[in-house]
Design a protein that fits this description.
globular, Aminopeptidase, single chain
Length: about 400
């Protein structure tokens, strides 16, 4: 899937987390890793005189050589082919340009928490790379400091067993009155079995943050980016905390870090989902400043249950409604695609399709990858496009109801 992975290296906490994640991906796919350090020419203007500029450039180059040397040693220790590069330009141009030149299939880079004011005034290198790169970018978030003893980091494939264990314990505690043990086991194994978990963590449009206390995994969040014609939406699909650590501030810290990481990806909207019957989950999102903005039907073990959709509170005039797009089928029938109702696909999201503009009469699904309504359910109940092979990636319940 990824033959060549580019990883910017500068010795920062975010870059080190990205390197860890990039090595994990390279081991899985047998990739070659290219490391790049960019000597930021944009900072030279802050120094007065030629001598000062030369000293500043020399200091930056020395720091870059050290960062590349340390990063190279870590990659070589994993027996992965590696090459290093030094560029002299602005950071985002150096990263994107190097990725194009070496034929990278993926850029893996880190980002750290910044204040809202910082992001508004300056943005970040990561945000600029996301805006200018035609190559997929996998963003790995590192957090500075610890809140209440809780540390969060991007999960890697070595964390799959811990994620599966947390999910099973959390779902049993939260949904034990709604689902039986067999249903929970089936769902967790489907979502976080060894192969499924590795696929999930390798997806550039997926963000999984792991929460730890004293080095022990105690919770995780799972989010996805969904692109629509009018917006990019960051969807928080899961926020699980081990029952033994609930009430310790893990959930609040994990939510704050997750939301910050999503917003670093320059999304237009944030949404979160929780079963309507699970009042503690609904109360949690309300306590975090989110409000219910809609509902949808989840298919769970052949049953239909209501799931509430939450979003940050905003004035009515600022709240954008998801687009409803009329489309014509190959047979000449006009259908209406609801971009507010999506399911994650292997090649692109599936959007719900209706026969009427008021979304009252359900038709099925629209494949955003190839633009067809020729979408069916396979023998496992998963959405599959008959034209391009795009398939539903199980991330929550079986699927939104298709009746």
């Amino acid at each position: 899937m990824y033959d060549t992975i580019l990883i910017p290296a500068d010795g920062s906490e975010g870059a080190n987390e990205a390197l860890r994640h990039g090595i994990d991906l390279a081991e899985r796919y047998g990739s070659t890793v290219h490391l790049v350090y960019v000597v930021d020419e944009g900072v030279f203007g802050h120094y007065g005189g030629v001598d000062a500029i030369e000293h500043a450039e020399e200091a930056l180059e020395e720091a870059g050589e050290e960062a590349l040397r340390d990063a190279r040693e870590r990659v070589e220790a994993a027996s992965i082919p590696v090459e290093t590069h030094v560029e002299r330009t602005t950071p985002h141009r150096g990263i994107v340009g190097t990725a194009r030149r070496v034929g990278a299939d993926l850029i893996v880079m880190g980002t750290e928490e910044h204040s809202e004011e910082y992001r508004h005034l300056l943005g970040s290198v990561t945000e600029r790379v996301l805006r200018t790169s035609s190559i997929p970018v996998h963003v790995v978030t590192a957090t500075t400091g610890e809140a209440g003893g809780v540390r969060t980091r991007a999960a890697t494939t070595s964390d799959v067993d811990a994620i599966r264990s947390i999910a099973r314990r959390s779902m049993t505690a939260s949904y034990g009155s709604v689902l039986d043990e067999a249903e929970i086991d089936e769902a967790v194994d489907r979502w976080y079995g060894a192969a499924a978990g590795e696929e999930l963590l390798a997806d550039p449009e997926t963000l999984v943050l792991l929460a730890e206390t004293d080095g022990e995994p105690v919770g995780f969040s799972q989010s996805h980016l969904v692109g629509t014609p009018d917006a990019t939406v960051g969807e928080i699909h899961w926020l699980h905390v081990d029952p033994d650590h609930r009430g310790d501030g893990v959930g609040g810290t994990l939510f704050e870090r997750t939301r910050a990481a999503i917003e670093e990806r320059d999304v237009d909207r944030v949404r979160a989902f929780v079963l309507a019957e699970y009042e503690p989950g609904n109360a949690f999102y309300r306590s975090q400043g989110l409000e219910p903005v809609g509902a949808r039907t989840a298919r769970i073990g052949g049953r239909s249950l209501e799931e509430n959709v939450y979003a940050p509170a905003a004035p009515d005039e600022e709240r954008a409604e998801p687009a409803v797009e009329p489309r014509t089928t190959a047979d000449g029938e006009t259908l209406y695609v609801d971009h507010g109702e999506a399911e994650i696909g292997s090649e692109g999201p599936f959007f719900a399709a209706y026969r009427t503009r008021d979304l009252a009469d359900r038709y099925g699904w629209f494949c955003s990858n190839c633009g067809t309504f020729d979408v069916a359910m396979d023998t496992m109940g998963r959405i599959v496009c008959n034209e391009c092979g795009n398939r539903h990636k199980a991330t929550r319940w079986d699927a939104v109801a298709t009746e």
